[in-house]
Amino acid sequence: MATKSREIRLKSRPVGMPEASNFEVATVDVADPGPGEVLVRNQWMSVDPYMRGRMYDRPSYVPPFQIGQALQGGAVGTVVQSNDPKFAVGDLVESMNGWREAFVASGSALNKLPGGVPPQAYLGVLGMPGMTAYTSFHRIGEPKAGDTVFVSGAAGAVGSAVCQIAKLRGCTVIASAGSDEKLAWLKSVGVDAGVNYKKGNLLENVRAAAPKGIDIYFDNVGGEHLEVALDVARPFARFIECGMISIYNDKEPAPGPRNMSYIVGKRIKMQGFIVSDFADMREQFYTEMGGWVRDGKIKAEETVENGVENAPKAFLNLFSGGNTGKMLVKLG
Amino acid sequence: MATKSREIRLKSRPVGMPEASNFEVATVDVADPGPGEVLVRNQWMSVDPYMRGRMYDRPSYVPPFQIGQALQGGAVGTVVQSNDPKFAVGDLVESMNGWREAFVASGSALNKLPGGVPPQAYLGVLGMPGMTAYTSFHRIGEPKAGDTVFVSGAAGAVGSAVCQIAKLRGCTVIASAGSDEKLAWLKSVGVDAGVNYKKGNLLENVRAAAPKGIDIYFDNVGGEHLEVALDVARPFARFIECGMISIYNDKEPAPGPRNMSYIVGKRIKMQGFIVSDFADMREQFYTEMGGWVRDGKIKAEETVENGVENAPKAFLNLFSGGNTGKMLVKLG
To answer: Given this model, what pLDDT does residue A119 score?
Structure first.
């Protein structure tokens, strides 16, 4: 018996800032699972800033989304019907089949999840954003106790994980976010100083918060924040280039920092990465980060929209600062 | 008996491009050496692009030059009189007391040089520029045989050493320089393809020379070259940030590359350095590079001005592309 599933399709490629009209809802019949296949009903799906890049029609590390087809992204769901002996009805599984209510996939495309934490943690602090934060902060940032760490986009899923990991490593943490409420939450989880980038002069405010300069910059936003970070960087600073959300929607490429020569004079290391580059750290991540989450040493905040029809809204809100912590869509 | 020495002083700080009027010649009496001191007559002195940075009055990794005082820089000379038992008359020594004909210094500020190569090699391919090229190319560039290496400022002292070291490591080398004559010389020492950055569209020309992209970018110039390198970089490319001569004389800071987001998407590592950061590689450098130079596997070209009074001219010519290979001033 076919299962009805609503899904979100890319209707047109955004030019500049994405809009609701770039998306459409469709209802499809999901066929019964064939041999080796599993039927899954999604409970939660993730929207992430990197998905904006897949809406451009250009070569990248992941192929572009196709117009008229369902979008993709991280999701956790429950097995409803299984023709793969590795999965039983009721199992919690992770997939890249987000943006839809139900789907059939080969068991090999699913990842069975342990319990013990809320299922949506596997889309946030114990999922791709958490692993992004944990792996790059250690591998590129090379943190030492006493380092000063500046984090942009600090209230987001990745940024808020970085802030808390840095505190656990004995660092001083300066967080930039777009509202005083977000900064208040970040201080409640241990951040030393907050900068509201929408108020006053960013460079002056960061200088005041980090009078001795910074040793590590965790970059989620690019643009002006990157220029400021170059200005306040100490010699041998490490720049973890995770994302540049401030320029993802630019129609014309914006000029880069005016102070690039600091990279030479201050001997800065600036390095980009994709979380899969650090797949060798997966076990270490699950062990250490899992322990921190279970022990309450790392707190995960969430912003939740309900229903697949609100997934585009959740995605659009990423670019207007609508989320504190992980932005999620509850489907189940 | 005092020794007369002519020296070059900074008369005024350059604003934008340095001019002859920023310098002045003075004649001083050099006193006889005291206990532990040595009197040296310089044979050769070096002018290098990094000296422009010391003409600004700002904190940096080396203190700024002072107005009315003699400039400083690498020099090789001969011991004329010695009160330090470690130095004998006739010894060849290296110092940071360039821009003058003779000087007295503590023996501890001098470095005795072996023979076997022309003395001025210790200001070029076996000196600071050669060590800059050798250490950073290996330590930051992490070259593998088969890599494609793009070198800007390729005809200069550092760039031409990088090109030849890269060839010895089995890399394909694309060189950018400002004249067809320079490129012809670079091809004569093994470079695979040359781009004259003064002719046509730089991006198109680099793309044509490196159709599969680049794995290592050795940056001496910054500016447009850096943007082009980001465009043609392959995933996991390493950018060795040695210098940005194209922007050293900017009166207003110029915007950076418009394609900074490639650092994330292509997982680029961009790292600045100062040669002293890699002091631990000194012995390896002398051994391997010395062998290459003696065996004729690395060729050093020179552009020479004569007389300390022409040192400012030599320095100014660095910024108009007046040198092929190491720019030197012959004093002895």
So the answer is: 94
